[in-house]
Amino acid sequence: MDGSKGLESLSPEVRKFISSPKKLLIDGQWVNSASGETFEIYNPATGQVVAHAQSGNKDDVNAAVAAARRAFDDNSEWRKMSPSARGQLIHKIGDLVLKYADELAQLEALDNGKPVVVARAGDVALAADIFHYMAGWATKSEGNTLALSVPYTPGTEYHAYTRREPVGVVGQIIPWNFPLLMAAWKLAPALTSGCTIVLKPAEETPLSAIRLGEICLEAGLPKGVLNIITGFGETTGAPLAGHPGVDKVAFTGSTEVGKLIVKAAANDLKKLTLELGGKSPNIILNDADLSRAIPGAASAIFFNQGQTCCAGSRLFIQDKVYDEVIAGISAYAKALKVGPGLDPTTQLGPLVSQTQFDRVTGYIKAGNEGGASWATGGGRVGNEGYFVEPTVIINAADSAKVVQEEIFGPVLVATRFSEVDEELIRRANDSVYGLAGGIWSQDVSKIHKIANRLRAGTVWVNCYNIFDASMPFGGYKQSGWGREMGSQVLSNYLETKAVCIGY
């Protein structure tokens, strides 16, 4: 097959990048994998191969961890760098992300399938922002002095204080739905804290992480501080998660894989943070401003082709506005332009892979079981690539698979409710997940009542999918452990040491 099909709009820089060998970053050098094996990278708009990446294995992970260990443990340039200088370097990474914004956006559209306009305005801008935001925290890791009263040593005085110190070598494993942004969310706070890193991108979407590695080196990041190993979960991710030389693992991905990460890390009790799946409730009340609620609820599920862990995939609509909302979201879905991510007019791109296409279409086919039906959508678009129609399923039972399980595609399951009462709260919380939720209403009392009762890490009110580097993000229940972004994320990468001096 002609892998160049649909790539006419790529810039010369991106063409050169994808045609050059994709290597592993170990100890400041780009190298081939120990086995010499590579794997194919596909354009999800056509299903054709556009590049190859190195297939890392346990030997490569060992080399990368050893490099990160040296950069952290030895009297290295990174350990001797002042917090101010570290912050300036991290800020420069953010500056360079903006410098190469168009290039990075094209890589995201090619690799993941998302619309290039969305990638430029959202993914790239937020990636730069997290580096800029975290750069300011490099000089603000402060401890405390403590006043001790020790009853069993009367007459002896003590000077005690606390220090915040980097946790050490961090293994970071990121997903394919926001390849650049998830790498930035992971790297920025770890670098700010003074850690060293081995990053494993998703095998479906390694291109932007590799390019970000080049950017980090251009910014002046010392060798061994960031190492990037591309490859598959079983042969690269698992050895990294279980490696005895790794002090902490940070993972973003599915809850199923998150549970495997927990098992891999259990042998030496390494620290973990997990940002996992979701099946988020989005609630529209009778008094909602439907001119905002309808497009907002549609965007909550169709944004990024529904491949978003916090997608508003369970829509609860109060009786009086139910028909109008269903009609409005269905019309919105039908009007979306579905096409290749590199087309600047595309609003909904393809799913990321054949595996994901099969998963999502399987759920859609099962969606009409038990009396449920499709208000719109339900099929594939075109005969090549991994395109799925934006779909709205109605009348599904709360116990149905499409209601309870994370589909990770442009599939909305809508249901009605009568009153803002305990039953609504119970249904909204009836999920093993607790990542996010949404409320659309003008009634402040009801907003607070619902928001306070939702078991979710983020609750959006009269908006959805709003992110900022200063706002923590993470989940309750099986949606994960810990938080990304905000000052809270730094606790993922810092240890607290107490020092006590008797005199």
Describe the structure.
The chain has 503 residues and is α/β, with parallel strands linked by helices. The chain folds into two domains: 12-276 and 480-499, 3-Layer(aba) Sandwich (Aldehyde Dehydrogenase, Chain A, domain 1), CATH 3.40.605.10; 281-468, Aldehyde Dehydrogenase, Chain A, domain 2 (3-Layer(aba) Sandwich). Helices cover 37% and strands 20% of the residues. The chain contains 16 helices and 22 strands. The protein has helices at residues 12-19, 58-73, 77-80, 83-99, 101-112, 116-135, 179-193, 207-219, 233-241, 255-266, 290-302, 322-335, 354-366, 401-404, 422-428, 444-453; strands at residues 24-26, 29-31, 38-43, 48-54, 145-146, 158-166, 169-173, 196-200, 226-228, 248-252, 271-275, 281-284, 314-318, 373-376, 391-394, 411-417, 433-434, 436-440, 458-461, 476-477, 480-481, 494-502. A seven-stranded mixed β-sheet has the order 14-15-16-13-12-18-19, sandwiched between helices. A six-stranded mixed β-sheet has the order 9-8-7-10-11-21, sandwiched between helices. Strands 5-6-22 form a three-stranded antiparallel β-sheet, with no helix packed on it. Strand 1 (24-26) and strand 2 (29-31) form a beta hairpin. The protein is globular, with a radius of gyration of 24 Å. The chain starts with 11 loop residues before the first helix and ends with a strand. The model has no long low-confidence stretch (mean pLDDT 96).
Please outline the helices and strands:
Blueprint: H1 12-19, E1 24-26, E2 29-31, E3 38-43, E4 48-54, H2 58-73, H3 77-80, H4 83-99, H5 101-112, H6 116-135, E5 145-146, E6 158-166, E7 169-173, H7 179-193, E8 196-200, H8 207-219, E9 226-228, H9 233-241, E10 248-252, H10 255-266, E11 271-275, E12 281-284, H11 290-302, E13 314-318, H12 322-335, H13 354-366, E14 373-376, E15 391-394, H14 401-404, E16 411-417, H15 422-428, E17 433-434, E18 436-440, H16 444-453, E19 458-461, E20 476-477, E21 480-481, E22 494-502
Parallel strand pairs: 7-8, 7-10, 8-9, 10-11, 12-13, 12-18, 13-16, 15-16, 18-19
Antiparallel strand pairs: 1-2, 3-4, 5-6, 6-22, 11-21, 14-15, 17-20
Helix pairs in contact: 2-9, 4-6, 4-8, 5-6, 6-7, 11-12
